[in-house]
Specification:
Blueprint: H1 2-10, H2 17-28, H3 30-65, H4 68-82, H5 89-94
Helix pairs in contact: 1-3, 2-3
C-alpha cells in the first residue's frame, strides 16, 4: 500500500478547467481514449501497473486467511482505488 501511495503522489496534478475540457473530448472520442490509455501504460503506467498488480495479488492472498475486520478494511481500500481521483482533495483525504 505504501508503494501504491507513493506512485499516486508522483502522478501529475490536474489543472482545473483544461482537465475538464480534455476529459470531455476524450469521453466523446473513444479512439483517443484508447490511444491515451496505451501511451499512459507505455510511459508512466508500467511501474504503476506493476504496483497495482502486487496489491491485487497481496489482497487475494490476504482474503484467504484474514479475519472479518481486515476484510472490511480491505473493502474500503478497494472502494477508494475504484474511484481513483488523485487530483481530488476529498479522495486524498479519504486515502
Amino acid at each position: 500500500m505504501d508503494r501504491l501511495t507513493l506512485k499516486i503522489h508522483q502522478l501529475p496534478q490536474a489543472h482545473g478547467i483544461e482537465e475538464v475540457r480534455s476529459n470531455r473530448l476524450v469521453a466523446r472520442w473513444r479512439t483517443l481514449d484508447w490511444v491515451i490509455g496505451r501511451l499512459s501504460v507505455a510511459t508512466v503506467g508500467r511501474s504503476t501497473m506493476r504496483v497495482v498488480d502486487e496489491v491485487i495479488v497481496a489482497t487475494n492472498r490476504l482474503i484467504l486467511v484474514a479475519p472479518e475486520p481486515i476484510v472490511e478494511a480491505m473493502q474500503t481500500i478497494s472502494d477508494l482505488v475504484g474511484r481513483f481521483e488523485p487530483a481530488s482533495e476529498d479522495w486524498k483525504r479519504d486515502w
